[in-house]
Amino acid sequence: MTILAVTDLTMRFGGLTAVNNVSFSAERGHITAVIGPNGAGKTTLFNCITGFYKPTVGSIVVCPQVGKIVQLEKLPGHAIARKGKVARTFQNIRLFGGMTVLENLMVAQHNALQAATGFGVLGVLGIGRYRAAERRALDLAKHWLEQTDLLDRADHAAGALPYGAQRRLEIARAMCTEPALLCLDEPAAGLNPRESAGLNELLLKIRDGGCSLLLIEHDMGVVMKISDHIVVLDHGKKIADGSPLEIRSDPAVIAAYLGEGDEDDPDAPVAESVA
Amino acid sequence: MSNLLEDLKDSAAAAFFALLIFGPFIGLRLSDNDAGNLGIATRPEALALAVIAVFAARLLILTWGRHRPAKIATGLGAQVQKTGKFIAPALLVFAVVMPLLPGLPNAYIDLGVLIMTYVMLGWGLNIVVGLAGLLDLGYVAFYAVGAYSFALISTTFGLGFWECLPIAGILAAFWGMCLGFPVLRLRGDYLAIVTLAFGEIIRLVITNWVSLTGGPNGLLGMPEPTLFGLRFSMAGGPGTFAGFFGITPAPWQRDAFLYYVILGLALLTNWVTLRLRKQPLGRAWEALREDEIACRSLGINVRNTKLTAFAIGAFFGGFAGCFFSARQGFISPDSFTFIESATVLAIVVLGGAGSQLGVVLAACVMIGVPQMLQSLQIYRMLIFGIALVLIMIVRPRGFISTRRPTVLLGKKPVAIGAELRAEGRG
C-alpha cells in the first residue's frame, strides 16, 4: 500500500535544476527516509511535497485514506494539510514563539475548530457546537503533549522552551493536524544523543499509531535505526532506493558521501539545492 | 570607570547634536531695530543652557539605566499585569458613572466622548496591527468611509443613525477587503506604505468628487442619534427626551447620551475582540503575526485570515466614523488626514500592541493629556513630546507589552514577555 507516490519530479530555479526527474514511493505505515549530501535537493523535494514550491514537472500523489487519491501539486499551499493530510516540520524550527505550547497545538487544529464556529458568529456568541469541538481539540492537544513529554510545559511560551523541547513541540503541532503523512525536515538536528534516542522512540510511536513518516535526516544513527526504507539523493537525482541494509552497502551511495566520481564524470549536472 | 567614560562620550555626542539642532532654533533670533530693519540677534546663553540640559539628561538616563537595569521596566510591567485585573473593572465603572457625576462641567463629557472615539478606533486598529501584525497606516480611510456612508445614506434616504450604523460598518468592511486583496503579498514596511497610500486615495477621492461628497465644503444635515426614537432637543416638547420624561431640557443630557452611545460601541468592539481572541480565528491572527509560513503548513488559509482581520478592523472603524459624523453634524475631508491614522497607530503602539487595556491608557495619554495641558499654552506640545519620548524609553514595547494566553491548561495565570512575542512583519 503506497501512501505517497512521486513521479518524474523536476524542480528548476531558472537554470538551476535542484531536483531532477526523481521518482519514488513511500509505503503506508512505514518510515521512509530521504538522505543525501548537503545540496542534494532533499529540502526542495520536501517543499514540493508540502506545497511550498510548485514543481516544474512531475506529479505527487498522496493517498490519505484507502481509496482516496489527492494530487498534491495541484492544490494551493494551505489545502495540502487539510485535503492531502500531509503535515510537516521545518529544518529551522518555526514555532509561534510568543504563544504558549498549548496555543501552538490549538492553532494547528484551526480548520477543525473554525468549522465548528459557524463562520465565527456562533463562536463569538458562545453558542452551538463550538464548546464540544474545543474540548475535543484540547483532548487531542493533551494527548500529544503527553506523547512528547511536554505536558508540564503546556502554559509556557513556546519561544522560551529549550531547543530539544521546541523540536518535540513542532512534531506535536504537526501531529495535531491529524495527518496521514508526517514530513520531518532534519528532526534530529542539534539534539544530544539522549534526546536523539528519545526522538527515535517518538517517531516509532507515531508510526505505530498509524501515521506514515517521511524524513530528511543527516544523523545516520537515527536513519539506520528507525527507517523502513531509504531514498538517496545526490545532485538532485535519485541514486539509490532500498532498505537500510541495501543502502549501507550500495557503492553509489558510498561514492556520493565520500565525494568520489564527481570530478571524473563530465556529464554530471551541476545542481546545488536552494534552501 | 570605563562605563562612566563611555557615558560621558555618549552624552557629549548628544550635546553636539543638540548644538547642531538648537543652534539655529534657539541660538539665533530675528529682531527688528528701531529703524524697522530686520536683524539677527544671537542668544548664546540660551543655547548653552539647552545644550547643557541635553548633556545632563543624557548622562542621567545612561547612568540610571545602568544602575537599575530593566528592573523598573519589568517591575512596572508585572505590577500593571497584577493590578490589571482591578484596573480594567475600575476604569469601566469610572467610564460608566463619569457623565453622571454631579457638578461635572460639560467640557469633560465632551473630552470623554473624544477619548472614547479614539479608544474605539484604537481597539479596531488593534485587531489589524496588534493581533494580526499587519502594519496599517491608512486606518483613517475606514473611519472616513463610515462617516461619509452615514452622511450620504441618512440625507439621501432619510434613515436614522441606528439604521445607518450597520450599513456604515459593512461598507467600511467591504473597503477593508478591497484594500486587503492587493496588499496580501506585502509585508512590513511595504504594507505600511501601500495602506498609507490607500488612506490618501480615499481622502483625495472625497475631496475631488464634489457632486457626491461636496468636496472640501463637506456635508451637513445628518440626524443625531436618538434614544428609542426620542430626540435630544433644547426646545423640549413631545418626541424629545426631556419632553417624554417631563424634565427640563439641558445640554448635558445630549452630551451624556452621546457619551453612552460611543461607550457602548467601544465596549462592543472590545467584547468582540476579546471573544475572537479566544476563537480559532483570533488565534490564527496571532499565529500569522508570529509565523506566516508555519501557518500555511498547518493548513490555515493565510489569505482569508488576513482579509478577515482587515475587514473586522475596518468594520469597527466604520462604526466610529458613523458616530463621529452623527455627533459633529458636519464632516469634511479635513477630519480624515494622515495625522489621524498616525494618532490611532500611536495609541496602539504606545499601549502595547495587542493589549486592550493598553489602548485605553494610551488613548487617555495621547488625547487627554494635550487637552489637560492647555493652560500651559505654547509649552503644551513640548511637554507632550518629552512625555512620549520618556514613555518609550522606559517601556519600549508599550504600556502593557506582555501577552495573556488565550487558553490555559493549568489554573495559574501566566503572562508572556514582550521579548518572545513577534512584532509582525506580515
Supply the number of helical segments of chain A: 11
What kind of oligomer do you see?
Answer: heterodimer
Number of domains of chain B: 2
Q: Biggest sheet of chain A, in brief?
A: 6 strands, mixed
| Overall pLDDT of chain B | 85
Query: Termini separation of chain B (Å)?
Result: 44 Å
Total beta-strand segments of chain B: 4
Number of strands of chain A: 10
> Could you give the order of strands across the largest sheet of chain A?
6-7-8-3-9-10
Shape of chain B: globular
DSSP strand (E) fraction of chain B? under 5%
CATH architecture of the domain at 1-85 and 179-275 in chain A: 3-Layer(aba) Sandwich
Largest sheet features of chain B: 2 strands, antiparallel
CATH C-level class of the largest domain in chain B: Mainly Alpha
Tell me about this structure:
The complex is a heterodimer of chains A (275) and B (426). In chain A, helix 3 (101-108) packs parallel to helix 7 and helix 6 (130-147) packs across helix 7 (163-175). The radius of gyration of chain A is 20 Å and the shape is globular. The longest helix of chain A has 18 residues, at 130-147. Chain A has a domain at 1-85 and 179-275: Rossmann fold, CATH 3.40.50. In chain A, strand 4 (57-62) and strand 5 (70-71) form a beta hairpin. Chain A has 275 residues and is of the alpha/beta class. Chain A has helices spanning 42-49, 79-83, 101-108, 110-116, 121-125, 130-147, 163-175, 193-208, 220-226, 244-248, 251-258; strands at residues 2-13, 16-27, 31-35, 57-62, 70-71, 86-88, 181-185, 212-216, 229-234, 237-242. Chain A has 11 helices and 10 strands. With 426 residues, chain B is mainly alpha-helical. Helix content of chain B is 68%, strand content 3%. Chain B contains 16 helices and 4 strands. Chain B has helices at 2-27, 44-67, 71-97, 106-131, 140-157, 161-183, 188-208, 210-213, 241-245, 251-277, 280-290, 292-297, 302-328, 338-351, 356-372, 380-394; strands at 28-32, 38-42, 219-220, 330-331. In chain B, the strands form 2 sheets. Chain B has a two-stranded antiparallel sheet with strand order 1-2. Chain B is globular and about 70 Å long. The two termini of chain B are 44 Å apart. The model of chain B has no long low-confidence stretch (mean pLDDT 85). The interface between A and B is large, with 48 and 38 residues.
